[in-house]
Amino acid sequence: MEQRKKELKEQYKQMKPEMGILMVTSLANNKHFLIAAPNLRGMENRIKFQLSMGSFPNRTLQQDWDAYGEGNFKIETLDTLEYSKDETKTDHREDLEELREIWIERFREEQKELY
């Protein structure tokens, strides 16, 4: 039993969640919100929870969510970031933020409205 616990702990440590950029899109007004996430699935759950509880940090997005309802929004992965070959690098925040800035610039060039 103790050996099995150790194995499971080790497997958990080796897990690498998918990381990248999430996009929340309002289908009602075609506005987009981009967020960098070291764990895409976890961040998607967090966004949905915060919006449903009325506590999302971006107040404009929260107001639209409240006005139009959950059914008028979609949350999807816009881009993913691969883990570096260097196993010693564990903090990818700068890389994720840089990727987010690239997407924000693309959206601005295409004149897509952002929250």
Overview of this structure, please?
This protein has one domain: GIY-YIG endonuclease. The N and C termini lie far apart (50 Å). A 3-stranded antiparallel sheet has the order 2-1-3, sandwiched between helices. The protein is an alpha+beta fold.
* CATH class wording: Alpha Beta
The CATH architecture can be given as 3-Layer(aba) Sandwich
Give the domain tally: 1
End-to-end distance, in Å? Answer: 50 Å
Count of separate DSSP helical elements: 4
The SSE order reads: HEEHHEH
| Spatial strand sequence of the major β-sheet | 2-1-3
Q: Determine the mean pLDDT.
A: 92
Strand content: 15-25%
CATH-level-4 superfamily name:
GIY-YIG endonuclease
User: Quick one: how many beta strands?
Assistant: 3
Rg, rounded, reads 17 Å
Outline the low-pLDDT stretches. Answer: none
Q: SS-based structural class?
A: alpha+beta
How would you concisely characterize the structure shown here?
By secondary structure, the protein is of the alpha+beta class.
Write the layout of secondary structure elements.
Layout lengths: L1 H13 L4 E8 L5 E6 L2 H14 L5 H10 L4 E9 L11 H17 L6
Antiparallel strand pairs: 1-2, 1-3
Pick out its properties.
alpha+beta, flat, 3-stranded antiparallel sheet, GIY-YIG endonuclease, 115 residues
